[in-house]
Write a structure and sequence with these properties.
The structure is a single chain. Helix content is about 50%, strand content about 0%. The protein is mainly alpha-helical and about 70 residues long. It has one domain. Helix 2 packs antiparallel against helix 4. The longest helix is centred in the C-terminal third of the chain and has 12 residues. It is globular and about 30 Å long.
Length: about 70
């Protein structure tokens, strides 16, 4: 599994579709935070992760912590 570079990147500017393509294991985490069918919603994958967190009221810090947990 390739580690998600959350600590060393400005994750909020990454597109959700790019994250899921590069790190498919992150799909489960996103579905937990944004809803079960979030990745099937039109336009969801072309949003940045930061914008989606703002729009859906998701805590960015917690989301990143979960990303880091599944890497180890």
């Amino acid at each position: 599994m390739m580690p998600y570079p959350a600590k060393n990147s400005l994750f909020e500017y990454k597109l959700i579709g790019d994250i899921v393509r590069k790190y498919p294991e992150m799909s489960e985490v996103m579905e937990r935070h944004f809803g079960g069918h979030c990745l099937k919603r039109p336009g969801f994958k072309i949003q940045t992760l930061g914008m989606a967190c703002i729009l859906f009221g998701v805590n960015q810090k917690r989301l990143l912590q979960e990303f880091e947990k599944i890497q180890h």
